[in-house]
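Hi R.,

Here's the chain you asked about this morning:
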Amino acid sequence: MLRQSLIIIPLLLLAISGCTGGGSDPVVAEFNGKSVKASEAFGQVKSRLIDLEEEVYRTKEQAINEYVDQKILDMEAQKQKLSKEQLLEKEAGAGAAAEISDKEIEAFLASKGLSLSDKRIKKDDVKEYLKFRQKFEKQQQYVAKLRETAKVKILVTEPESPKLSVATEGQPTWGNAKAPVTIVEFSDFQCPFCARAVPTLDQIKKEYGPDKVRLVFHHLPLPNHNRALPASLAAACANEQGKFWEMHNLLFENQAKLEDSDLKAYAKTLGLDGTKFAECYDKKVHMDKIEASKKEGERVGISATPSFVINGVLLQGAQPFERFKEKIERALKKG
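And the predicted structure, written out as tokens:
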């Protein structure tokens, strides 16, 4: 199946982008004497096909790296007249690992929201796991050194996703304006999938910081969510008083409570000027800004939430942190 995808997906993408046959848009079907072009048929699934091509690339890249790592280890083992297993044990085995302290065990469990007070958790089991993880990390570090010496280069071409240019001026922003990576989010405060993305974005903030990643928020309240637009208006009014992200978090934490009284109560909770907030909200002062955000989404072809544009590359849905990390790391690598 993978081999078939390797052939089919690039062809579909070429057809969509109009690159086949010197920039032509090939006909992929006919009915009643009419022709269907690739751009027409595949337009609705374009982003999905791009995701598939990236998945194929990641699979190929992983396979190449694993093969090269094994070959490098084989060569080094032969040089030292050892088996591969003996080499790894010598360089990154139990002898190279430090003893796991009780503090490390407690810190690890705390990071997972657990503790030794839970009778289901065995201290020795946690210790063995941390030893295994430490040994694995040391092996990875050793292989990385060998790769650096061997000057490894991956020659498979990374797919280039179509770039989206999204306007960000005047939108709520977190991070340094000069950060090398910009993530533009199109979101709906009543969308459950958007709420799932909040912890992931918080993890991105924590791991990369404001000097590497900048977050920009675009309102995209969907018509089937009757309280999404009022919530966006409340967030925009909170932004007036410098509390957009605080209101953002409260709204997503309380998606079942987005009535007018709830929204005004959140303003009070955040210490905002209640009179000023109420006037802003009741008069729908920022409706034009929200409509402009919606039109910007339409302009770049975004109609679903949550959607993210990472340095021009589209990522749709409440994706896990690892998917964001892949795109952020690639963007940082490209400078």
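The longest strand covers residues 181-187.

Let me know if you need anything else.
M.
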